[in-house]
């Protein structure tokens, strides 16, 4: 997609579109489950610290990560296979800046209502339920933090939780809103604006939210900037 923007190309093969959709859905689905795993990790670390090494041992972490990628791949493979198999007899112009499956389905010359129900179910499983799981985890975490006697401990915990919730909000809300709406309520322009949040803004915010809040990373960045400035002078 980035190369198309740079070279001004506005065409893509059907197979290329399918590959782009597959990786988009795989990465998107895996990220929703990984964010949920991160919320559970923080819940166990803060609310059940004595049980942390039992509940979040190496085996559990490997299963969480592997499960997130496997489930994301299976969901993506099912949707991509369907999109590549349906006939397209209308315009081949996708009204989007990438091969988004809802935008592709609107070009099909067959009844896709059953598939739209499957998209709705998939959105519930991969977005709505994980989001409620994250909200429940952080509700328990915030209640536990509120009871802390250490002001420094509360500050650090609030800082960590706020960073994670910021990413979750920017990622889940527009994603869910886009895929939960029926076709009759969709607007191509609105879908493209919402897609900017979970395809561009969230990836841009991730380094800031997760890395630049770390003191060691900030100090390393300052050293790099000082070296660059000293070389220029």
Automatic annotation (TrEMBL):
Keywords for this entry?
A: Cell membrane, G-protein coupled receptor, Membrane, Olfaction, Receptor, Sensory transduction, Transducer, Transmembrane, Transmembrane helix
Which segments cross the bilayer?
12-30, 117-146, 158-180, 192-212
Give the matching InterPro entries: GPCR_Rhodpsn, GPCR_Rhodpsn_7TM, Olfact_rcpt
Taxonomic classification: Eukaryota, Metazoa, Chordata, Craniata, Vertebrata
Entry-linked PROSITE patterns: G_PROTEIN_RECEP_F1_1, G_PROTEIN_RECEP_F1_2
Q: Under what name is this protein listed?
A: Olfactory receptor
Q: Which domain of life is it from?
A: Eukaryota
UniProt cross-references to Gene3D superfamilies, sorted A to Z: Rhodopsin 7-helix transmembrane proteins
Question: Which terms in the GO cellular component ontology are assigned?
Answer: plasma membrane
Q: Which residues form the G-protein coupled receptors family 1 profile domain?
A: 1-210
Origin organism is Tupaia chinensis
Q: Name one GO molecular function term.
A: olfactory receptor activity
Localisation: Cell membrane
What is the protein's membrane topology class?
Answer: Multi-pass membrane protein
Give the UniProt family note.
Belongs to the G-protein coupled receptor 1 family.
């Amino acid at each position: 997609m980035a190369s198309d923007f740079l070279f001004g190309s506005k065409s893509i093969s059907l197979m290329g579109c399918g590959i782009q959709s597959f990786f988009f859905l795989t990465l998107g689905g895996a990220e929703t489950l990984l964010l949920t795993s991160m919320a559970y990790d923080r819940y166990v670390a803060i609310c059940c610290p004595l049980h942390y090494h039992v509940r979040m041992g190496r085996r559990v972490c490997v299963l969480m990560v592997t499960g997130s990628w496997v489930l994301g791949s299976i969901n993506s493979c099912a949707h991509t296979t369907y999109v590549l198999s349906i006939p397209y007899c209308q315009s081949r112009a996708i009204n989007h800046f990438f091969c988004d499956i809802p935008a592709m389905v609107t070009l099909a010359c067959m009844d896709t209502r059953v598939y739209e129900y499957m998209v709705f179910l998939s959105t519930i499983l991969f977005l709505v339920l994980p989001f409620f799981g994250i909200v429940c985890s952080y509700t328990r975490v915030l209640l536990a933090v509120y009871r802390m006697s250490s002001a420094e401990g509360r500050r650090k915990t609030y800082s960590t939780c706020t960073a994670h919730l910021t990413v979750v909000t920017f990622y889940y809300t527009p994603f869910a809103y886009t895929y939960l709406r029926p076709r009759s309520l969709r607007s191509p322009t609105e879908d493209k604006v919402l897609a900017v949040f979970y395809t561009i803004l969230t990836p841009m915010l991730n380094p800031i939210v997760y890395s630049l809040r770390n003191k060691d990373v900030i100090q390393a960045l300052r050293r790099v900037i000082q070296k660059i400035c000293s070389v220029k002078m």
